């Protein structure tokens, strides 16, 4: 390997590090929201899949065990949907960033 190749390798590593930092910032700044039960439960999540807020409509509060089970199911559904939306945003951002490098398609980044 000659010194020119080492210089190119170093430059590529710097680009990769910069892209990773940009992606981390984008993930932290990206916010998705998902609801379940017709808006009874709403979850806000960032691109890192950290739940930022859970909102539960007061009408969801019931007194029976079945009401509690339904509420638990609605929360689970909203969190899972927010996670899927965060994944979709991340995938889209990655494809955009990788496209600028002129690299061949990478497995897992295409539908």
Strand and helix layout:
Elements: H1 3-29, E1 31-36, E2 41-46, E3 51-56, H2 65-99
Antiparallel strand pairs: 1-2, 2-3
Helix pairs in contact: 1-2
Tell me what you see in this structure.
The protein has 111 residues and is of the alpha+beta class. The chain has a domain at 31-98: 2-Layer Sandwich (Ybab, Chain: A), CATH 3.30.1310.10. The chain is 56% helix and 16% strand. It has a three-stranded antiparallel sheet. β2 (41-46) and β3 form a beta hairpin. The model has no long low-confidence stretch (mean pLDDT 83).
Looking at the overall shape, the CATH architecture of the domain at 31-98 is 2-Layer Sandwich
Could you state the order of secondary-structure elements as H and E? HEEEH
> Roughly how many Å is the radius of gyration?
21 Å
Query: What's the overall geometry?
Result: rod-shaped
CATH top level assignment of the domain at 31-98: Alpha Beta
CATH superfamily of the domain at 31-98, please? Answer: Nucleoid-associated protein YbaB-like domain
Please state the average pLDDT score.
83
pLDDT < 50 runs, ≥5 residues: none
The name of the CATH topology of the domain at 31-98 is Ybab, Chain: A
Number of strands: 3
Q: Largest sheet, described in full?
A: 3 strands, antiparallel
Helical region count? 2
Structure characteristics:
Ybab, Chain: A, alpha+beta
Summarize the structure.
The protein is α+β, with helices and mostly antiparallel strands. The chain has two helices and three strands, in the order αβββα.
């Amino acid at each position: 390997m000659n010194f020119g190749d080492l210089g190119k390798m170093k430059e590529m590593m710097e680009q990769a590090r910069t892209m990773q930092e940009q992606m981390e910032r984008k993930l932290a700044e990206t916010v998705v929201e998902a609801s379940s039960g017709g808006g009874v439960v709403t979850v806000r999540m960032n691109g890192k899949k950290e739940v930022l807020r859970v909102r539960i409509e007061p009408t969801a509060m019931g007194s029976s065990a079945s009401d509690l089970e339904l509420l638990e199911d609605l929360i689970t559904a909203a969190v899972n949907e927010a996670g899927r939306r965060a994944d979709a945003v991340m995938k889209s951002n990655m494809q955009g960033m990788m496209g600028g490098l002129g690299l061949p398609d990478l497995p897992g980044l295409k539908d």
